[in-house]
Protein 1
Amino acid sequence: MPIETRVEPVGGRLSELTAERDAEVAAVPVRSGPQAPAAEIAALLPFTLDEILALHRAKGEAGEIVSTPVRVGDGVRELLLYGVGDATPADLRRAGAALARRGRGRRTLVAGVPDGDLAAFVEGALLASYTFRIGEAPAKGPLETLAVLTEAGPDASREAIARGTARAHAAATARDLANTPSGEKDPSWLADRAAEIAERSGLTLRVRDEKALAEGGFGGLLAVGSGSARPPRLIEVGYAPEGADRHVVLVGKGITFDSGGLSLKPNENMKLMKTDMSGGAVVLAVMGALRDLGVRARVTGLVAAAENMPSGSSMRPGDVITHYGGTTSEVLNTDAEGRLVLADALAYADAELDPDAVVDVATLTGAAKLALGVRHGALFANDDALAEALTAAGTAAGEPVWRLPLSDDLRPAIESDVADLANVGKPGFGGGAITAALFLEAFVGERPWAHLDIAGPGRATGDDAEITKGATGFATRLLLSWLTA
């Protein structure tokens, strides 16, 4: 659902702003130590801020909150002493998230924010306010307004607030698309959402239906979608600013539901498969934010959308697929379908779009999650400079990635007896995330390419800092940080 919380810059004294806006909550930042701020609102208390912090044994860590009542004007309000750690971007992101969660059910919270990355603070607050619910609204809704008070003043804060808001809303769009149940969400539904994003964001759009895919030779998409009554789509979205300095292609896995096909998943493993198009959701969300963030690169987004279902018309283990461009792959497991649709899109990008760099995003392998957990994405790349740029962007955005090798030792694992490639590694090799990346590499030609496997951080089982339960939109802010660098 769209983020309902608004962030506004304000100027003045914290106590006066709290009274003027009739805010239920005021907040002052506390650095590590703890270091109590010289806040004028403290004069309204019968004790010092240091005494309150000492009573609660506070440390000023990012995300920590200590509360005390304070009389401001004609009413008693809540005063929050919220930890900002060392006020790094990561600290401010976590601090903003903690404030937003504490403000649930409230109309207005006025917060002093220390010098630092205000956009990160805003991102944290807005993303922690994100909700997705079908049915009755929760008793406590998100904070309505977060009024931000900085030393620099409201005019100097507007650009950072706008930047943080744009990135947060982009990530929320990715979350919305991925959280939507698959009964509603099929490839044509995803194409319709792409059309809406394109219309409001000044993008071009081309959608290839099953007839166009057959005419174009997109065998991977057709094979994966063959078992579903809801046919596949290849969604192509374009952003071309005047004077663009480079051309980047983003490719997203768009499996709107993954049953595993004839290699059927257990029921427990299917429950989260509405989010198996998270990579495609990220690509559409990024495309929708490019104009607002003033990105100077030309960017093309490709979403390979299909539903992987079992039926009499499904692809079978042992089938051989001819992908776009002619490369063939043997299907040894129908539940390794994401790489089959990505292969078509990557080959098309290489042959027809002439990009300077290609980055694909996918919830591709459980092996990546086992290797790196749920906070880091796996990064593979055939170009060191691209890998370094994406790693730096992920660190800055709070979406870290860890580079894994494209190991030559594992190339024999995806050799096939009857086709150019096998879609899964042979027994005894291991390295499932690596063999999947090696499969994709075969379709990118000689172009700089990176693969982001977000199977771990793309979904969350609970709330933590700016992360909310369900789809996380991981890689949206990373890619926007990279594209705006």
Note: The CA atoms of residues 253 and 342 lie 6 Å apart.
Protein 2
Amino acid sequence: MCGICGFTGASESDRPILKAMCDIMAHRGPDGEGQYLDGGVALGHRRLSLIDLEGGNQPMVRADGGRDARTTSPALALDGTPLAGAEDASATGQYAIVFNGEIYNYRDLRAELEAQGWAFKTHSDTEVLLTGYLAWGEGVLSRLRGMFAFAIWNREARELFCARDFFGIKPFYYTVQKGKGAADAADGDAAADAADGSAGASAATAPQFIFASEIKCILEHPAYERRLNEAALEQYLCFQFSALDETFFKGIFKLPPAHCLTVRADGTVEMRRYWRPAYDFDERRSRKDTVDAIDKALRESVRYHNVADVEVGSFLSSGIDSSYMAACLAKENPAIKTFTVGFAEYEGERDEISWARELADELGIENDSKHIGEDEYWESLPRVQWHMDEPSADPSAVALYFVDQIAAKRVKAVLSGEGADEFFGGYRIYQTPFANKKLAWAPKGLLRGASKAARALGVRGANYLARASETPEDWYYTNANGVAFSPEERERLRAGKRAAGADANAGSAAGAAAAVPTPQSLTAPVYAEVAHLDETTRMQYVDLHFWLVGDILLKTDKMSMAHSLESRVPFLDTQVFDIARTVPLVFKVDGEQTKIALREASERAIPHDWAQKEKLGFPVPVVNWLRQERYYNMVKEWFTGPEAKRFFNTDELVRLLDEHKAGADRSRKIWIVYMFLMWYRIYFVDRTVPEKPAA
């Protein structure tokens, strides 16, 4: 795992820009760095070495497309000396690659390529990826098993090919900006065109394509002018994460998962989707055979994810996902190290750490743990938001920051359990359609009226009644449903505070609200792709496209890389999905249980109590903290400050704080706004890197 960056329209005089882009993400790669400038392209790389420690340096350059062509790299050690495999640091070639991630089946692919006559100089997955692209073109993507974001430069064609992995495990950001000497050229609007699938201009305008693993790298390029994208704020309030392809920075976009793009010589950007998850339920397969298939697929995936030239550890929480995965890894490597965090408030109780320690003893494996203190949690918030690049309102991101911190002191890579819930039906909200069936007899209008009455009276059940009167398409767009802001609540916060142009175009406050897309309008095209499937599966599919990539995987990548640690996710493997997509609803979720078949499979590796444990999420004591005078006053100062007044109706913000202090739970809504304000101050007011908390 590493950090990559680069841009087209480059010349030798741009080397300091490339160096600055690499330096700002030094945390992603402490083991080496490399810059490549040739033929109008600049490619940068920071390396965290895990496979072929001596030979896998980047950028990796190949002399030509011949099967015995020589490869080299301009990479340097941090003391400025050339690294092994970089003996000719000034060498150039027809092809060059920068790659972030891991190709777990690279040995299989290498054997296949060698059988076709391709020669290799290193033992790295990077060289296999580059050679596979030369052999199979874009078709190499369907052969990959791993996580990846990469860019390959073809000097002869003057084209840059970029791709992101199937599920969006690794990030890839880009923008298209005005080229050197062009009076009128592509700006943020050109990037928007690219996000739609195409962007172009005459060669004379020479728009620059700029990309990186982190947004903060793009901010180092002088062609980009920092501007806030308020459209992202609108959706963030409802989703609790950045839900649009365009980020909070105007004109900077995310390459969506399972997409690739080609930047042509004339600046045209062509984007396309190379893979799409599809369900094909096997209704004839028995429950036992389904469980067998899941267990076999996960054990094989763990074995592939254990491929490295360094030690691979594992996270271990109280949940079945990490417990099952760690137990499978222990079969591959009995000496594994596992890592757990909890909160000091719960020390001595039956918390994450007590569950993890007990299972570690049962499996005979090592476990390191840490109780996060109240002060260190709050002190870490600015640094966490800086690393996230965009505001993140998930309180558990801070817990990830600390568990990654303790793991990085012992290992360079860990396995983590992300993806199991989305694949195998793990969220309790997926049981909602079963609960709704109990009211299927009632007229929809009656249910809607009862819901409004319950909400007006402040009694429980309003959400249940509303959802029973609707389909998931009407109400479900994020796993934060019910705790994030509804569109109506968003309007109370934002009315009269939108950019002048937006309100003017709308013509009135009501028109401004109507001009803001609803969350449902964003998820509607995704729902349409699986309209023929059951309601729970439709919810899973939406989570694959929004919650998983926008919240879960983003914090997984950013928090691990903050500590130069690689986080590997065995559940998010195409071979595991090939099994998950065939599991019918009856073996995933019912009115009583979630992850039915996965739980049964996990009992082959972990005790029954762990396998059948109810999913609780990660308990963060923010609810209680925000009722303490100390934190109430701290957040209130932010909620009445100049940034809050610019974007929100502060009376509404203070009302939320007061209601929470009085006993209602408004913690998630408070956190959503608080994290945005903190992030905005870091990136648009102070524009400095927050101090790193003491380890």
Note: The chain has 30 helices and 19 strands.
Protein 3
Amino acid sequence: MIDYSVVIPTTGRDSLWRLLAALDAAVGPPPREILVVDDRPGGEELRLPPSIRLLRSGGRGPAAARNTGWRQAGGEWIAFLDDDVITDADWPARLAGDLTGLDDLVGASEAEIVVPLPADRRPTDDERGTAGLARARWITADMAYRRSALAAVGGFDERFPRAYREDADLAMRVRLAGYEIVRGDRATTHPVRRASLLASVRAQRGNADDVLMRRTHGARWRERIGEGPGRLRLHVLTIGAAALGGLFAVTGRRRAAAGCAAIWAALTGEFAARRIGPGPRTAAEVGRMLVTSVLIPPAACLHRLRGEIRHRRRHSGGPLHGSSGGPLDAYSGGPLDGSGGGPLHGSGGGPLNAYSGRPPHGHSGGPREAHRGRSRPPQALLFDRDDTLIGDVPGLTDPAGVHPMPGAVEALRMSREAGIRVGVVSNQAGVAGGLISADQLAEVNSRVEALLGPFQTWQVCVHGPQDGCDCRKPAPGMVYRAAAALGVDVEGCVVIGDTGADVAAAAAAGARGILVPTARTRRAEIAKARAEAAVAEDIVAAVALALAGVR
């Protein structure tokens, strides 16, 4: 039997009672409880059936309301429903089917969202906006999260004040924590609500939330949630043309003012035509599109500026901890001073010099638990080479075979822009096994340096598994040596790699570890890393997580 609770945030709309009646009459295993969270700032208590548990969140927005609900719920799974959706008669049975047998690594199940549109005419702009929910990823109109996954990331980020982006932000953080999100077979209907004349203008408030998304998840956040680049740059150009035109007009430069006016008119006209074309093209709709197409660009730019001001400050936490902050806050340390060394020789000594495995002076090592729960940017990021920075080609001897992994260039750029030292720690047992010579290894590593460098230190173990050295991961030798070469505390290092050995080497040295699984990573390694370190879906996400401070 699936153990689940249902959480419904509401502002008291009439549709809530329709939803509660549908759930009461539905077929399938009943929930442990249904919690309705009243997010009105005040007012009389909602009159609900006795079986419904009523909570209040004080008008702080849907993110806070959902947090209030799931933290009071007792189910293993928390099924979030919006108060205006329509569930099918067998919704509980379909939900149970979606959740039954899921692997422990699955943190959430999303439903298919169906938005009914008029069959006898083209949809209006507002109707098309609601229809976009059917294509959106991870919306909480109907989304079931494992309670442990919510607890692992701290729930919804309450800095998102509206029903906008808070669901995508949560899903991205859950995936950063190493959980999978799967699509279920259940379907839920989301009706189109009647919208006012200026609803699309008021919706531009979401531009402020987009700033928080960028600061939390990096510049590629739209790509990660499956969205296009947006139109803000064109809005900025539109407002710029209007502002310059006004300035030129005031100063008597009529020709320049006319040119700017023409640019404004062209951009505004193109925007309006893009919105009018797919719609019903009635007089009322066309008039509304013309008016709002003039108003949207300044509103979008104003709210974007407001978001930049609001979220300009550095936040103390990270993407796994709800409202604590974001992973792209810049590290405040000094410039990258490097430590010399080459792509094979590390920071001193030849390619076959074994490190003793003892911590350098001032580094005590210690278990991973010594710093669990800490949240601070790292002093250095140490990357595994094969299947982390470049594709893993067994016995790679030809530098032409070096190909960066997807996201490696972006991840390293993020690291360097944040002022973080970067290095490589790599097992290369092929030298000991005679598959590759030391010179060939140096040539390959030089190619990696040329494509992805500069790296401030290279630490390479050329021993085999049976040699008993202290440098081959999962032993901590190379982590100690890299920290010493970079002049940082080993506790300030984060090791990023694709195997359990990378995470184990970090833990043995007292550093932090982040696993970036590939198809060859064992599931047991993923589960262990998720419990004892951190797991990221790709190298860019790993760096974002590291820059925030691994919990």
Note: The chain has a mean pLDDT of 86.
